[in-house]
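go over this record:
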Amino acid sequence: MIKGIVVSLLTCMGLVVRFSTVAQNYSLSQLFYPNVTMSTEFMPSVSSDGSGRYGLSRSSLLGFVPLRTEANLSVGIGKKLDLAAKHTFLVANLAQITPTIDGKDTPTDGYKTAMAGLIQLKASLREKLWLYGGGIGITESNETFLAAKPYLWGGMARVRIFGLNSQLLYGTVVIYNQKFRLIPIVGFNKKLGDWRVAGILPFQVNVSHKITDWFNVGFNAAVAGYSAGFNTVLQNEKLDRRENYQHLKWTLSTNFHVLKVFNLSLEGGVSTFRQLKLFNSAGDVYQQSTPSVAPYVGISARYITNKSKMTGRLVEKLGL
């Protein structure tokens, strides 16, 4: 019974990790050990309908810090026993986003972004398997950082386990960034021999193929972008502005596992269905453009500490 709860919890963690990002081939150890991922992505300037040429680069630092893992045995209504296992971890992200319009960084020095959140995975006999999470973030230029408008996110999802190779997730995410958005999500993870298909709709899908224990390749499709504030000077008056950008990227990725604690990833492809919108202080769109299809290149490196031999043995014994 206890082993079944632990297996379900660990499998759920694996599912969640695969949904973190499609460029990386994440492992369960990312949730058990403190770790950090450094990544850079680049799209060169291309023609844009309505605002000249548009390009984008982004450098980021993503960290996971496990906070607590526990198991509890309790007696509920009707004197029924319930065994529950919980794992809580912190996720944080720092990034520099630099959009380029007509060869100039706009706004000057781009945007700084920071985010922190908590995620809890809970498996129990009575409540089954659930995922909860929430956090707060900010993305602003240097001119507006002290008067920034933060964004919030949170959600919950039910996870169904059909074995170590098949899982399904469904739930709802709430996001506040200028306005509230309620987004239904459906996630899936299916292993077929050396192939694996994973995704969380409507955000991303990944198909990967394991070549060896230390090398694999994948095909990725994902929605990405940013929303940030900046100031413009008009007749000696500073005016608040907001910029929203999004695209759909199609890429191929390769992942190399080195010395069990390093993961190196190289990703390349194109970004399509691009949209750039500028908003005034009243929240109205005053400029909109559709940048052309652009090449996409991304590279990242992840380091995972390896301090808990007990956890390592558990993950290895369960074959995860």
